[in-house]
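Before the break, one more example. Copy the sequence into your notebook; we will annotate it together after we see the structure.
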Amino acid sequence: MAIEKQNIPEALYRNAINLNRYENSVALGVVREYNNIIIEITDRLKQFEAGELTLTPAAVNRQRTLLLQLQESLNTWAESSSNTVSSELQGLAELQSSFIQEQLRKVLPSDATKNAVRTVEISPQFAQNVVNTDPRQINVFTLPEEFIAQTATVPKFSLTAREGAVINLPNGVNVRTAFRRIAASQTELFQNTIRVGLLSNETTAQIAKKLRGNLNFEATGTLAQIKARGGIGTTIANNQIDTIVRTSINQVSNTATFNVYKANAEIVDRYKYVATLDSRTSAICGRLDGQIFEMGKGPQPPQHFNCRSTIVPIIKDEFLERFGLDQDDLTQGLQRPAKTGLSTTGKLVPATENYAIWLSKQDIPTQNKVFGIEKSKIYRSELKTKSPTDVFRSFVRSDGSTLTLEELRKANAD
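Here is what the structure looks like once it is written out:
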């Protein structure tokens, strides 16, 4: 059997979908906290008459007081949300590393090979440094105390505080800085919206409506539905929050995954890039799906903000030979899960089928969801003369379902 076709547990593919639902859950909580602040401040804004906020000294003082309250609330939100994300990422790193270790054992065909799998310890400071540390400011002369303390005591196979510190978002900042930037920019947006509204003779109720849209306290529904009901004071921020949360979760889950494989370098020497076979996958991940790379030398997720892809291991021939085994001993099902059309349930497809091929076989409603109706027509026309990979472009929306960390743990155990 070709090494590219060796067995990969179905749970590894399913894990990527479950992680997406977990991302939805965490992002939804942070978004609601932010939106409630905007709702509270706009409720206070509506209590003023427009004449009370004209450019008199007393009116300017009222505006300043309102904006200072907004700034203080959003700064508190940024700190609280950073702590929330840090806690979630720490739990996720521990869960994901244990999950990948178990799945690696499942790939292996004998007790002796399973017992050779090494575990990875997670530093208690790992996620704190993902969220708080600016990797651009780290050098050998300014290492935080916990880095210095651990240099002599780090276990051989561990996910350290130092490794957490060098993880940052694709734009080069950490999670806490990203949240603080949202707080600052939205305070400025709020101020400018009030000023322009008053100069345009809008009522305070109209200005408040523009800022908050149709949102009320503790808005219900999926994250996408909540975003759609917002105003200019929530829409951009909600999208930014969602992106920050999704990307940091993907970074940590893939870092934990990669470190398990790195700790087991005598077992794993290559990996397969795996995108999710549903109607949300990006063009770049669709192209990479199914390709095999040397460990540490190929592209790794996240490839972009909101990336959901993962990697799965390819077992070394030399390792199997130590136990008198070969690739033919890895004989379990050569399939992967996929959504069928727009259904919430899936089916199994050949493990060699990549995203582009999968999408080309889907029904018109599914392709419409990926490309839109008009582009979908062009897509199907192009398929008549070109390969699915050549015509595959774009990405689409989330289904909005959620999982907590505990529910993710249970889903991984199923």
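The first helix runs from residue 10 to 46. Strands lie at 121-122, 158-159, 268-274, 292-294, 310-315, 335-339, 346-350. Try to locate both features in your own notes.
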